[in-house]
């Protein structure tokens, strides 16, 4: 009789495969180090992407500004065109010699350095032709509106990106009055009233009304004359009825789909600074040449610090900018004046000669700062101005225009 052999206490136990706790912990540590390194790249990538998009939009706006200069040469030829005096048949003043000599008498050849910034004039409540900043006994460049500073809406029309709108409310209307014979038309969106959407100066508001299949839309400007303030669930507009199938007299028969309520978001705006010559060297009489910089802002604010001039009052010859030097010295009284806005990569303006410089580095003390420029100063000047929100300064060299009066 054959007897099977079974496991006895003398046989070795079977070994099970796997990792020890120490090995697991070491693996987790190594993986964690790798994950932390990878995860840390995401915020930097997002910031770089946002910065790249900002520069792309800023560059597009720079080309828009250049086209605007060709369409509206009075921005350079006649930045003070609202002034009384020598006017042409259209009410434009082309006597630019007047402001060249009056505002910049000490500059070489009476070459004017000036700024065209209607938005800044409106927001700071300044008159066209007023100094960019005021320093006793120092003449700085002037800020003009070129006739576009009558209102904020007029300034925005030229000096901003007009396609910048944010959606404040959206939905499908539940009713309305679309009678084209009525002075006011309206739709009802039940989710608007809780949003506290205010309409008024500086807050352009519109309704974007899509048809039922989403292939077309109509835009209607909303005003406080047709709506309560803040905006309620009834979205109304005046004297501009919807056409065709959007209307059909009654809401029930209208082909209206989604409706958006949008407000202007001034993300990108711009101004120009220019340094002009009395005439092109060797060119025909009445031909004027300008070196122009287009300054593009993102979410530009208008703090009082934007119109403060910082001068060097502590050392002779009291120059902030020294020609061919990378160093800039500014002084201020901490008891009465806030420190200037300084940041690596931001910009500083020579408020006498109209040159912009990128800040490479700075050392700040009590009421004094030494700034290192990315490029040497092109001219000596006594006043520096710092503005917030600058995306970039785009130089446009040698813009040549012909004065139509000559």
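-> sequence recovered:
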């Amino acid at each position: 009789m054959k007897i099977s052999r079974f496991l006895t206490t003398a046989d070795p136990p079977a070994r099970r495969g796997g990792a020890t706790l120490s090995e697991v912990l070491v693996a987790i540590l190594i993986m964690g180090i790798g994950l932390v390194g990878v995860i840390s790249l995401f915020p930097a990538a997002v910031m770089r992407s946002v910065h790249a998009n900002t520069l792309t939009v800023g560059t597009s706006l720079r080309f828009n500004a250049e086209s605007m200069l060709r369409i509206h040469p009075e921005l350079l030829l006649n930045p003070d065109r609202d002034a009384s005096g020598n006017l042409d048949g259209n009410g434009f003043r082309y006597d630019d010699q007047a402001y060249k000599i009056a505002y910049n008498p000490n500059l070489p050849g009476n070459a004017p350095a000036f700024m065209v910034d209607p938005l800044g004039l409106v927001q700071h409540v300044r008159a066209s032709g007023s100094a960019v900043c005021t320093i006793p006994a120092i003449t700085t460049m002037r800020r003009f509106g070129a006739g576009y500073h009558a209102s904020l809406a007029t300034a925005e029309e030229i000096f901003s990106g007009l396609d910048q709108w944010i959606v404040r409310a959206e939905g499908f209307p539940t009713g309305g009055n679309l009678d084209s014979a009525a002075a006011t038309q309206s739709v009802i969106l039940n989710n608007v009233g809780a949003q506290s959407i205010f309409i008024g100066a500086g807050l352009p508001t519109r309704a974007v009304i899509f048809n039922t299949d989403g292939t077309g839309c109509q835009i209607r400007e909303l005003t406080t004359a047709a709506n309560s303030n803040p905006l309620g669930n009834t979205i109304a507009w005046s004297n501009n009825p919807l056409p065709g199938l959007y209307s059909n007299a009654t809401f029930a028969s209208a082909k209206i789909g989604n409706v958006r309520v949008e407000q202007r978001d001034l993300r990108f705006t711009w101004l120009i600074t220019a340094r002009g010559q009395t005439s092109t060297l060797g060119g025909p009489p009445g031909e004027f040449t300008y070196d122009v910089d287009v300054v593009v802002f993102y979410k530009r604010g208008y703090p009082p610090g934007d119109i403060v001039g910082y001068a060097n009052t502590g050392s002779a010859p009291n120059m902030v900018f020294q020609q061919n030097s990378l160093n800039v010295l500014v002084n201020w009284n901490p008891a009465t004046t806030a420190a200037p806005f300084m940041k690596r990569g931001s910009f500083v303006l020579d408020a006498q000669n109209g040159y912009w410089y990128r800040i490479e580095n700075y050392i700040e003390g009590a009421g004094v700062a030494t700034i290192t420029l990315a490029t040497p100063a092109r001219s000596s000047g006594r006043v520096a101005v710092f503005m917030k929100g600058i995306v970039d300064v785009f130089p446009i060299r040698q813009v040549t225009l012909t004065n139509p009066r000559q």
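The CA atoms of residues 292 and 396 lie 5 Å apart.
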